[in-house]
Specification:
3 domains; about 300 residues; binds 1,3-dihydroxyacetonephosphate; 4-stranded parallel β-sheet; binds iron/sulfur cluster; 15 helices; Rossmann fold; alpha/beta; about 40% helix
């Protein structure tokens, strides 16, 4: 309840009045996931944003995701409940430093993870997400020199998996870096045989213990296809909401941080979006994503290459 309003009802009314679509990432609060028109991983959400015929996209995720929606659908109004919902990977890759890095390696193409600013996308050749990177890398000639930014763990994982040497930008996600190998091993010992599903943003000492490594939607598909009764999930724990909805008879345990529980692995940026702020952004159509046209056009080129190569 917000100032005497039934927020869920108001959000629903505004969604219709504004001809708005509410897109949400799996790391959002369960209430937001449940009221969204579509919940997905970064690739699915960008496809939805590119296809929708709504006038307004209310993006419940972090800023780079909402920017991606605006880059692909510039004629739409894109609102983000909290404009401060950033991402540590984006922060780790400032556009000027990235430009200089590219200039130092003129014979490399830049394959860039979607978790970056619109400016960095405009400085890149091809954007990838965790669910499209393998397919895209497999289409590039083996001798192609590649810069991979900004996530060194994700880049390192696919570099090892596919036997491709890539020049890795030294960025990381603060959420996935917080998992503790020692606590994970303790948890595995307490639940013998429980499979571990992990996101490739995890560091290698966590990925080494994983039975499956993939994007949020691939983790979801994997765990729902398993016979196992208990499954350990090494990614942001709000995704467990979808798992519990789809398989209430199973037990899903968030992989622990150093304190032995999964609270330190909640994404502080995703948590900035609340029902109240979603209501306000649908009501006021603010805060709104705006991107300078030259940056948008540059960023669209590298995003379009991803959408072509991933389809
Ligand atoms: P996915 O594309 O796998 O949903 O990942 C998004 C993200 O930010 C993971 O931290
Ligand atoms: Fe960025 Fe990590 Fe949060 Fe994903 S979980 S949005 S990579 S800080």
């Amino acid at each position: 309840n917000f100032a005497g309003l039934d927020l869920l009802e108001e959000i629903d009314r505004l969604r219709k009045d504004r001809n708005a679509v509410i897109l949400a990432h799996y790391y959002q609060d369960p209430q937001i996931q449940d009221l969204a028109d579509f919940v997905g991983d970064s690739l699915d959400l960008s496809k939805k944003a590119a296809e929708t015929d709504a006038d307004v996209i209310a993006f419940c995720g972090v800023r780079f995701m909402a920017e991606t929606a605006k880059i692909l659908s510039p004629e739409k109004t894109v609102v983000l409940p909290d404009m401060d919902a950033g991402c540590s990977l984006e922060d780790s890759c400032p556009p000027d430093a990235f430009r200089r890095f590219r200039e130092e390696h003129p014979d490399h193409i830049a394959l860039t993870y979607i978790n970056c600013s619109a400016e960095v996308k405009a400085l890149s050749d091809i954007i990838v997400t965790s669910s499209s990177v393998e397919k895209i890398l497999n289409q590039l000639p083996q001798d192609q020199k590649i810069i991979f930014a900004p996530d060194r763990h994700l880049g390192g994982y696919f570099s090892r998996k596919l036997g491709r040497d890539m020049l890795l930008w030294p960025g990381a996600c603060i959420v996935h870096e917080a998992f503790s190998e020692k606590e994970l091993l303790k948890l595995k010992a307490e639940h013998p045989g429980a499979p571990v599903a992990a996101h490739p943003e995890c560091p290698p000492h966590i990925l080494d213990h994983a039975d499956h490594v993939g994007s949020t939607s691939s983790i979801l598909d994997y765990v729902l296809g398993l016979e196992a009764e208990t499954i350990i999930v090494a990614t942001e724990p709000h995704i467990i909401h979808q798992m519990e909805k789809a398989a209430p008879q199973k037990t899903f345990i968030g992989a622990p941080g150093a304190d032995g529980n999964c609270n330190c692995n909640m994404c502080p940026f995703m948590a900035m979006n609340t029902l109240e702020k979603l209501y306000i952004c649908l009501r006021d159509l603010e805060p709104r994503i705006e991107i300078p046209e030259d940056v948008r056009v540059g960023a669209k080129k590298s995003l379009d290459r991803m959408l072509e190569m991933a389809s």
